[in-house]
Amino acid sequence: MLITTAARVTRDSLTTQETTSVRSLYFDRYGNSEVLSLRDVAKPELQPGRVLVQVHAASVNPLDWRLMKAEPFLVRLSLGLLKPKHTGLGADFSGVVEAVADDVPGFAAGDAVCGLMAPDLVGSFAEFALVSTECLVHKPASLTHQQACALGVAGLTAYQGIHDYRAIQHGDRVMINGASGGIGTFAIPMAKALGAHVTAVCSGRNHDLVRALGADRVIDYQREDITELSETFDLVFDLIGQHRPSRMKRLLSENGKLVLASAADGWGFLRAMLVSQKDDAVELIVELEKSASRLQQLIDCVVTHQIEPVLDRTYALDDVIEAIDYVATKRARGKVVISIRG
After folding, report:
1. Are 134 and 291 in contact (CB under 8 A)?
2. What is the C-alpha to C-alpha distance for residues 286 and 303, in angstroms, rounded to an integer?
3. Are the C-beta atoms of residues 258 and 283 closer than 8 Å to each other?
């Protein structure tokens, strides 16, 4: 069930002092969404070097259903071979500091914050989360919690892809394949802010959306094979991965860069990794730079250029499993958000 205002989030009557148990999304085996359940668990206890946050909003990423399914299979080497080492899901969050360990500077109870979960901590699809300061910053007042939580994985991926691999100059030609999703809807305005001419590739139903975000040209991938285009681009940011890197490289200008942020399957990921190691023109985003300084750079970019996160749907925590299923359809336009507290 969709919600449009945070007022419908349950347990508003509970104060943080009264809360001894909290709801959290839980899974202890890999599979489809039937392995997920919302459970009442003990409220996280503050630990040295950590901050306890009352989560107001969290966003859903394709990463969540990939972790749920352990896809591609090789991720089990880090997640747990037969079952997950960590039983929570959710990487992005925004909320209010409940408590701060004595050895943590820069944050205090009552601060509005946003960030990403550390890999060793339970996920953000919960009423409270114990977080690291490694990727935690103060939330700007100009962003709501729903907007701030949407930055995380998608925003950092877009920022890394647009800023790190080629110094985009005014007038450079940039193609974004998968432009209407969570990453693409950040990447378009970021590239435009650098003065690029942006070609957005998406389905026909999303053309108006990407044009509104600043795309100069839009291609419907259902009607046109982009690898057969005669024109070239200085940066091709591929967020889909349905074409082999060798075919996507046909689109590059001299000294152009192909940046890959996704692959169709595990074999596609391995192929992309091998190509990126051998070919200087190809970059694969294997790991995000998750740091407070990088997240602050992203926030400064969003605020300075007035980039407004595109929110497709907002769900209550009760409906987080439905939200993950929706993101797994790959039909989301922008970000999908879980509103946990008003």
Report:
1. yes
2. 27
3. yes
pLDDT at 19: 61
Report residue 120 as tokens.
């060793």
Which of 145, 143, 22 lies closest to 95, judged by CA?
A: 145
Give per-residue pLDDT as tens, 226-257. Answer: 999 999 999 999 999 999 999 999 999 999 99
Q: Please state, in angstroms and as integers, the Cα–Cα distance from residue 205 to each residue in 147, 174, 202, 223, following that order.
A: 23, 21, 8, 12
For residue 117, the model assigns a pLDDT of: 95
Q: How far apart are the first and last CA of the chain?
A: 17
Residues of the chain with pLDDT under 50: 1-17
Instruction: Supply the pLDDT for residue 195.
Output: 98
Angle between helices 152-163 and 292-304 (to 10 degrees): 80
Kindly state the helix (H) or strand (E) to which residue 312 belongs, with its residue range. strand 311-316
Find the helix packing angle between 320-328 and 62-69, rounded to 10°: 90
Question: Hey, what's the torsion of the CAs at 278, 282, 288, 289, to 10 degrees?
Answer: 80
Ordered domains of the chain (ranges, CATH): 6-151+309-339 (3.90.180.10), 154-284 (3.40.50.720)
Q: Give the burial class of 261: count Cβ atoms within 10 A of its Cβ; 0-12 exposed, 13-18 middle, 19 or more buried.
A: buried
Q: What confidence score (pLDDT) does residue 18 get?
A: 53
CB count, 10 Å around CB of 115? 30
Amino acid at 162: I
Instruction: Give pLDDT tens digits for 303-313.
Output: 999 999 999 99
- Give the model's pLDDT for residue 277: 87
Q: Tell how many helices (H) and how many strands (E) occur in the chain.
A: 10, 15
